[in-house]
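Hi L.,

As promised, Lipoprotein:
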Amino acid sequence: MSRLLLLLAPLLLAGCGTQRIALPYRPTGPVSAPGALPPMAVAEVRDARALPAQPSEAPPPADDAAAARLGEIRTGWGYRQAEVAAEAPVASVVSAAFAAGLAQRGALAPAGTTPAYELRVTVLQLDADRWHRLDATADLLVDVVARGDGRSVWFDHARSYNLDASHVTLDTGPVVIAPGGSLGRLAAATLSEAVDEALDRPGLRIALARDAAGPRPVLSAER
């Protein structure tokens, strides 16, 4: 009987907790030089993710829990062990990442000022999972809007996906991923890559320079 309980222990522990990970912004390569972008503010970040369905044995998450949820940790056999969540709602995390990205480029408008442009971001996907391997995805829509009249000056779709197969395992024992652990680092780098992609597009600088010279039709990286 004791042997059976030991074998079943990982299953009984499944879904028993939440692992919180930090997603600080750090540049993933050379960034636009100060002065390349005008001062901007992060006006709005909307979390539009289609969150995966919860396992039938798990209670429905509270709104704040769903807003921070990133994925799951599973054993090598597929048994759910824990939720993965950000330390704050995803909208707040992404807003902070863009603010830090603008600051890194000398383009974050000082508090209390009214910059000519603002960012409006829609989060289509931001997740981090551990099952056989570590993987993370960030999928963002970025709209740069002229603050005076609400014109869309630049629209972009930035996406980053990373995986780490070095953690392949069939282990069924408890998994503990501390804040700043390998999954956290992968997820943070993935979000940072998407922010870098959005802020360092040559087309963004061109669109803003043209707009400063006079109103123009909206440009888009999708075209």
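Residues 13-26+34-220 form a domain with the Rossmann fold fold (CATH 3.40.50.10610).

Thanks again for sending the construct details.

K.
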